[in-house]
Design goal:
alpha/beta; Rossmann fold
């Protein structure tokens, strides 16, 4: 059982918590065949989930290669990963020759892709989110692949619906979401063509103390900026809980590729969360607009059946984030754009 502190004081403590493997991950790794490679390891999620894999191996008393691939524009991040015992390979996953040069590894965690901000370069967005997955799916056709996707491929649904199900037909709004659906289709095609075991993780939204929907709302409250209520509701999951579920998804891959929604069970109100931050900061939130009857929401019933409910609850995250921001700790300044309703991220 992971013990959670009342407050998180610094990045070292935060990274330690985000990468702490649950006992279920340790037990999985005792039985898991082969090494792991994390494609697109640099970024918000990659370092902590790869480090969790390394720590799970250590706690299980087993030896596995844990490899991270990225362009590594930040050399310090590459050195830090190597310090954690993670092998690194530097290169461009859009380069077919580079992809073909990568070691054939049994277990693949695919994190690469164009994230928010894609409207500024749509051709690159499509290349990274569809062409790159096609290259990877072919090179690793004999591996087991867990690939990150997004809940943005779903349509907006009424609040009382409980969120979109994996069986619901996607209605990707905007080119970013369409390209993400393209990513899924490339892995699905590779899975069907080659019999590759795969799982597609539709995530929304991962949260820690330096970024995420809660950080976006908290920052606006503290800075007394207006908060748009038109996307009035959302789902979140603590990144440490998400890391655990994604690694455990290696044991739940299928052909053709299956889909797993990963998020928390709660449907949170932007207004209510802002008011809670307002109490903690001693501020009165400023709102604009009104809540629409629909929002981007996912139903995580399947993932909870497989992995259990997340251990860190929204109230705990709100408390941690308020303390973190009050002490002016580092933020990544990578906004989620959760308020967007037209798909233009």
């Amino acid at each position: 059982m992971i013990k959670y502190p009342e407050v998180i004081d610094n990045e070292e403590q935060l990274e330690e918590l985000l990468s702490k493997p649950a006992i279920e991950v340790v037990e999985l790794f005792k039985a898991l065949e082969g090494d792991l490679i994390f494609l697109g390891i640099a970024g918000k999620i990659g370092p902590s989930i790869a480090r969790m894999a390394r720590r799970a191996c250590e706690e299980a008393g087993i030896s596995k290669r844990i490899i991270g691939v990225s362009r590594f524009s930040n050399e310090q991040e590459q050195h830090q990963l190597e310090g954690f015992g993670i092998e690194t390979i530097k290169g461009d996953l859009l380069d077919p020759d580079f992809v073909k040069s990568l070691p054939k590894v049994k277990n693949i965690i695919f994190l690469a892709g164009m994230k928010f901000g894609s409207e500024d370069n749509l051709s690159l967005t499509w290349a990274m989110n569809t062409y790159m997955p096609a290259l990877v799916a072919e090179h690793y056709k004999d591996s087991t692949i867990v690939a990150f996707s997004t809940g943005c491929v779903y349509p907006l649904v009424v609040i009382g619906s409980g969120g979109s199900l994996e069986s619901d037909r996607p209605v990707a709004i905007g080119e970013y979401a369409q390209s993400c659906l393209g990513r899924e289709r490339m892995f699905e095609y590779g899975s069907k063509k080659n019999g590759t075991l795969a799982s597609l993780i539709r995530l929304n939204y991962s949260v820690e103390l330096r970024y995420g929907v809660l950080v976006d709302i908290a920052t606006k409250v503290k800075n007394e900026d207006q908060i748009d209520l038109s996307m009035g509701y959302f789902n979140i999951i603590w990144q440490g809980d998400m890391n655990v579920m994604v690694l455990r998804a290696l044991a739940h891959c299928s052909t053709p590729a299956g889909i797993i929604n990963i998020t928390g069970p709660e449907i949170l109100s932007v207004r209510q969360v802002a008011l809670e931050f307002g109490q903690l900061f001693g501020k009165t939130p400023k709102f604009t607009g009104e809540e629409a009857p629909t929002a981007l929401l996912s139903n995580a019933g399947i993932s909870q059946g497989l992995f259990g409910k997340p251990k860190v609850l929204p109230g705990q995250m709100i408390t941690w984030i308020a303390s973190w921001i009050s002490h002016e700790n580092k933020l990544l300044n990578k906004h989620t754009h959760f308020e967007v309703r037209d798909g233009k991220y």
